[in-house]
Specification:
Blueprint: H1 2-33, E1 59-62, H2 67-84, E2 88-91, E3 107-110, E4 117-120, E5 125-129, H3 134-142, E6 146-148, H4 159-164, E7 181-187, E8 193-197, H5 202-208, E9 217-227, E10 230-239, H6 243-251, E11 257-264, E12 274-282, H7 300-307, H8 313-326, E13 334-335, H9 336-340, E14 354-364, H10 368-382, E15 385-394, E16 409-419, H11 422-441, E17 445-446, H12 456-462, H13 466-476, H14 485-490
Parallel strand pairs: 1-3, 2-3
Antiparallel strand pairs: 4-5, 5-9, 6-9, 7-8, 7-9, 10-12, 10-13, 11-12, 11-15, 14-16, 14-17, 15-16
Helix pairs in contact: 10-11
Length: about 500
């Protein structure tokens, strides 16, 4: 009997060693094969975060650090470009992936230094230069007990870029970032500096927000801010087909959720069939709402778990298991600023032969389950290296002309790992076009800052207001001073049969 007990204990120990040891060994292997440093960004005017575009600008002009001097410099540049028939494109953090900041042979305006900021606490308005990054702003507000009301989920984008693509994030039941813009100042293609708001130069306000840098140089923005607050995560594992219904049941008439996001499983056995919803519930606490970032450091474990999914079914399974068991926050009480202060570089590829590519599809609430169902076989057919799918709720956008959310939609943010070669790019193009067709079949749209793989017909189907948008572009910029690859690709008229 004693011998049998010993054998049983040995077997239990061996099983435990396998169960515990395999994840440890796997993560150690990922760590050994991971690059030591993030891939450097290409030079300004030459490339963007995708590292898939080669651009040769005629000039790169870096704006002055002093706001007044920079404004004079920009006005002079626009006048020179108009007189010489030159084209200007505007570079911020360059996270758009389709050449939105490039015009080959043109002038690239680097807004990096234009990052001043000031706070009106009485009005709760942050005035900030368009070149500022969110990682500049979040600590600035954190030290004063405030936070950004709407932004994307990473901190290394520029303000000007964020409002030019009309980004959104985990903020619960909110329209995109344009809804938090009180006003902005812009240097127009005529060299005139205008203040734009919902009451003043309202048409230009709606065009430049989500206007991809085609209507002039946004100088500074007034953003409505909110309180920094603490959240406690509450996770729900559900069938993906139930996502929209469950989301609304959990959040309807609930005012204590500050952020909500979801995930679709990319693990092989549960691929697109399981989902999670993470509710970030406001929590009263004695913790200070100021200087909440002091002890925050990037998490190596999070990176290894995430990058472990690249070309590994086990890695994808392990990550999904971990998210189901402990969630991403690990039960910690986290401030709003802590949640928003993560860099995209924490998860990005460090392999020089690969890049990370984003897609996003905006699907009406009543069609979400249908989109997930119809897109699943597309993925199974093409077998792309899909690493992550985040789901975000977005309320109707009534502020921007080129709106992607005319009604309540769910945004599905897809992150892929892709080889940097022609075959991989061709495969991604085919996948993208098929997914756009699925989105259209579900009354949905796709997001415009990424690779320019959509056909002209698909673009106009997704954005029926596009022809009017480009007509207004030519009205405000008759000499075509501002230009980029996005405009060159899609501004041509759609031929009607």
């Amino acid at each position: 009997m004693r011998k049998r007990s010993k054998i049983a204990l040995i077997l239990v120990a061996l099983v435990a060693a396998v169960v515990v040891g395999r994840p440890v060994l796997f993560l150690a292997f990922v760590w050994l094969n991971d690059g030591a440093e993030p891939n450097p960004m290409p030079s300004v005017g030459v490339g963007d975060a995708s590292r898939m575009i080669t651009n040769v600008p005629a000039e790169v002009i870096a704006v002055a650090e002093d706001p007044a001097a920079a404004e004079r410099q920009i006005v002079d540049l626009i006048q020179r470009a108009a007189s010489e028939g030159r084209r200007i494109s505007i570079a911020g953090a360059r996270h758009s992936m389709g050449g939105h900041t490039f015009y080959p042979g043109g002038i690239t305006l680097d807004m990096e230094a234009f990052r001043h900021m000031s706070l009106d606490e009485d009005k709760r308005i942050l005035t900030v230069g368009a070149g500022a990054r969110w990682y500049d702003i979040i600590p600035y507000l954190d030290a004063r007990g405030y936070a950004i009301s709407i932004m994307q989920s990473n901190n290394d984008f520029s303000v000007g870029g964020s409002i030019s693509v009309n980004c959104h994030g985990w903020q619960n039941d909110k329209p995109p970032i344009a809804s938090s813009v009180e006003c902005f100042r812009i240097v127009t293609p005529s060299g005139e500096t205008l203040r734009c708001s919902r009451q003043e130069n309202a048409e230009l306000f709606s065009l430049a927000l989500g206007g991809y840098g085609l209507f002039g140089v946004i100088l500074e923005v007034d953003l409505r801010i909110t309180d920094n607050e603490y959240y406690e995560a509450e996770a729900h594992l559900i069938a993906s087909s139930d996502y929209a219904d469950t989301y609304h049941k959990l959040t309807e008439n609930q005012s204590d959720f500050g952020m909500v996001y979801g995930r679709l499983s990319v693990a092989p056995k549960s691929f697109f069939q399981e989902a999670s919803i993470t509710l970030l519930r406001r929590k009263e606490t004695d913790l200070p709402n100021k200087e909440t970032l002091l002890d925050q450091e990037p998490s190596l474990l999070k990176r290894l778990v995430f990058r472990g999914g690249v070309n590994s079914d086990y890695g994808k399974k392990f990550r999904w298991w971990g998210e189901k068991q402990i969630g991403e926050t690990g039960g910690k009480l986290l401030s709003r600023n802590q949640l928003m202060n993560g860099p995209s570089s924490l998860y990005s590829s460090r392999d020089p032969d690969t890049t990370d590519i984003l897609h996003e599809y905006f699907i009406p609430s009543d069609q979400l389950a249908n989109f997930i169902k119809k897109s699943r076989p597309v993925f199974l057919k093409h077998q792309p290296e899909l690493l992550n799918v985040t789901i975000r709720n977005i309320h109707p956008d009534h502020d921007t002309f080129l709106s992607y959310a005319p009604e309540e939609v769910f945004g599905l943010v897809l992150l892929f790992s892709q080889e940097r070669d022609e075959d991989a790019e061709a495969a991604m193009l085919m996948l993208t076009r098929e997914l756009i067709d699925v989105a259209h079949a579900c009354r949905g749209r796709y997001y415009l800052p990424y690779r320019l793989h959509a056909t002209l017909e698909q673009f106009h189907q997704a954005y029926p207001q596009a022809s009017a948008f480009f007509t207004k572009k030519r009205h405000f910029d008759p000499q075509g001073v501002f230009d980029n690859k996005f405009y060159q690709t899609y501004s041509q008229p759609l031929e009607t049969k």
